[in-house]
Structure formats: C-alpha cells, structure tokens
Amino acid sequence: MNEAATCIVAEDEALLRQALVAELARAWPALRVVGECEDGASAVDALAEHRPDVAFLDIRMPGLTGLEVAAAAAEASPRTRIVFVTAYDQYAIDAFERGAIDYLLKPVKPDRLDATVARLQARDALPDAAALAALLEKLGALPQQAATAEPLTWLTASMGRETRLILIDDVAYFHADQKYTTVVTREGEALLRSSLRELLPRLDGNTFKQIHRSTIVNLKAIAGITRDDSGRGTVRLRQRPETLTVSQPFMTLFKHM
C-alpha cells in the first residue's frame, strides 16, 4: 500500500480504541485514521463514506458484529482489507488461520501489530472485503462471544402521560430521533428515553437487525424487501402501513431473505 493508506478503527470500548489508534501511529506513521467507530452501524457508514484501505474491526460490538460489518463491506468498500480484533477464542482463531484472515488478540501487543502492519504493507495474501465475505461464508458462521446479559423481553415506554409495558416480540421497529427512540408496534408509537446505542446491546441480535443508522427492525415483522437501482432497499412490514429504508451498505445483511 502507498504512503497515503487510510484506515478505520471500530471498537466499542473507548480506551481500547484509543490504545489501538495510538499503537497504529507508532507502527505505521504514514497510515491515516479516517474514522473511529464505537459500534457496527457507524463502522458500515464509515466504510461506505471513506472506502479505506484497511479496517480494524472488533468482533463483538453493539448492534452489528465485526463479522456482519465485514459482510457489509463487500458492497460498501470491496477493496478494503479487514483485520479482526477479538478476545481469545480458539475456534475463531483456527477458522481465521485456515482462511488466511488476519486478526489481533486483545489486548493488542506491539509485536503482533507490527507483523500485521508488515503484511498489510506488503499486500501479503490478505483477502480484501469482497473475498473475505466469501471466505467467511465458506468457513461457516463463527460462534459469537456470549452476551453479558439476557436479551430484553419487555420494556417501558411513554405515550403521552401514560407509561406502557411493551413486549419485545410486539415491536415492529425502533427509530432514533436525537436522544429519544420511538418504539413502533402494531397498535401505535411510544417514546423511550434511551438511544439506539444503549438499546442495541440489550436486543436479541438474531431477531433485531439495524438497517439504517437510525432504524432497527424486528425480522419477524418484515413482509418483504425490495432493492432499487441505487442499491438501497425498502422494507415492507406485516402489520404497519409505512415502509422503512435500508441503507445500501446494510443490504448485504439481507441477501438470503
């Protein structure tokens, strides 16, 4: 890669993210960090906006995992080379090594990062995002690290002066508006005093997917998805009249639907 190489760093723990950025400045002074992301959705947006040469992706992040971000990168920035950052997981490491996929273990050690930087600078057989997506699918779904708490089964939300109890299974989607989040069910809308970032880690990732920076949808509420010529998608809901926009980078997550 040339001296103008760029990268993004996606890590939800601020101290770990800052430490990796600092180590990159030492190991690769010419590398320009164009995005520091605290969750999977912002990482996808940064990939689409900057199309960096390299992306360092934490595997476990709120909302989209690093593996899901890598899958989205196949469309958002297919030439980006991906390096996963992970806590120790021998199964994942064995799979990565079989696929010649580079990874860093937390906490990142300087000598290991130096080796990764050398491979990136030499373009040493590291797959780009487009090739990586195919490799990950071939290797099979990797087990995710266990969540720290059980997913939400219900929540409380405000509708005027009334506080409502809403079962998570009844939620069609969540939509962010500044610091508030609207929760939408078949019966109507209510307000949560939580941001999407606070909400995402508490949702079941197998049921709820982020489809836009400001929208999370319940997969069980989807009636169909269509794609337009620009690459964006539109979600039709089973029991709601409105449609939802799927940002172009997130369409990869729905390729099997």
3D structure, described in words:
By secondary structure, the chain is an alpha/beta fold. It folds into 2 domains: 6-139, Rossmann fold, CATH 3.40.50.2300; 154-254, OB fold (Dihydrolipoamide Acetyltransferase, E2P), CATH 2.40.50.1020. It has helices at 14-27, 40-50, 66-76, 90-98, 110-122, 129-139, 196-199, and strands at residues 6-10, 32-37, 54-58, 81-86, 103-105, 154-159, 162-167, 171-177, 180-185, 189-192, 208-212, 215-218, 222-227, 233-237, 243-246. The protein has a 5-stranded parallel beta sheet, with helices on both faces. A 5-stranded antiparallel beta sheet has the order 10-9-8-12-11, with no helix packed on it. Strands 13-14-15 form a 3-stranded antiparallel beta sheet, with no helix packed on it. Strand 1 (6-10), helix 1 (14-27) and strand 2 (32-37) form a beta-alpha-beta unit. Helix 2 packs parallel to helix 3 (66-76). The longest helix has 14 residues, at 14-27. The protein is elongated and about 60 Å long.
